[in-house]
Specification:
Blueprint lengths: L4 H11 L14 H18 L8 E5 L2 E4 L12 E4 L4 E7 L13 H7 L15 E7 L5 E7 L5 E6 L9 H19 L3 H24 L10 H4 L27
Antiparallel strand pairs: 1-7, 2-3, 3-6, 4-7, 5-6
Length: about 250
């Protein structure tokens, strides 16, 4: 059963044993005011704690400037993208291979490989990036992402405030964490606060394990003794008809 904001708030009060409840975060009571002060920041903190499936988003990033377009991008980067406004944790950029900036696959390549003429048909190594700040056209500081990846697609944890979508174990962990955040203001009991933090950590660990089990995870690790000989990865055909680049496996060499 989905939990509402008020239900989760009252669960947090239960964790620290106030024996009180609220009907709204804006009702003006001492408990409601304490919860309202911490709610938004606590949500962001818990969302940043792991790669939660219910808060995953994948979208093309907005290009602000690039060196090949005459823009000024800090060295050694070539592309600057706007940081998504609803992002609380940028997980990765989709590793796409592009022949040149703004270019697409050639018809000859598509004809010989059988791959579609789409950006998603080219998968490369992990994409390096860094978060930084820049100024907008009005001189105001903004958060940006710097990388060398053209047409970057970002995968990130977004600020999912719809509590009905939250995982049940995440709700338990968040309620305990929120309880720890408001404990001193409502009870002044440090032992209760420590207990709430410990409970929050346990629920968070359980939630992360269950979250990680939803979906196929492939850990393709090559031993060091093979990597140093130049055999780091094989040709692959992952889901979706994409392919990976790499040297042959040792087992294929006669």
């Amino acid at each position: 059963m989905a939990s509402s904001q008020v239900q989760i708030a009252n669960m947090a009060l239960d964790v620290i044993g106030t024996r009180s409840t609220i009907a709204s975060l804006t009702e003006g009571s001492t408990e409601a005011n304490a919860i309202a002060r911490h709610w938004d920041n606590a949500v962001d903190a818990m969302l940043r704690a792991a790669h939660w499936n219910f808060a995953r988003k994948q979208i093309p990033l907005t290009l602000l400037q690039a060196t090949f377009l005459g823009g000024t991008v800090p060295t050694p980067w070539t592309h600057e993208y706007a940081y998504p406004s609803d992002c609380v944790l940028l997980r990765q950029l989709v590793p796409l291979i592009q022949p040149t900036d703004g270019a697409t696959a050639t018809a000859d390549f598509a004809a010989t490989s059988g791959s579609p003429l789409s950006q998603a048909a080219f998968m490369g190594p992990p994409v390096r990036f860094i978060l930084a700040t820049d100024l907008d056209i009005n001189g105001n500081p903004i958060e940006v992402l710097l990388t060398n990846q053209p047409q970057a697609i970002g995968i990130y944890t977004f600020r999912n405030t719809n509590t009905s979508m939250w995982d049940a174990l995440f709700v338990q962990g968040f309620a305990a964490y929120l309880g720890a955040r408001i404990c001193m203001a409502l009870t002044g009991d440090k032992n209760t606060q420590r207990m709430a933090l410990s409970e929050a950590q346990q629920y968070a660990n359980d939630a992360q394990r269950m979250n990680g089990n939803e979906g196929l995870t492939v850990i393709n690790q090559t031993p060091d003794w093979m990597r140093v000989r130049g055999y780091e990865m094989d040709w692959a055909w992952p889901d979706g008809g994409m392919f990976g680049f790499g040297p042959q496996a040792l087992s294929l060499i006669g």
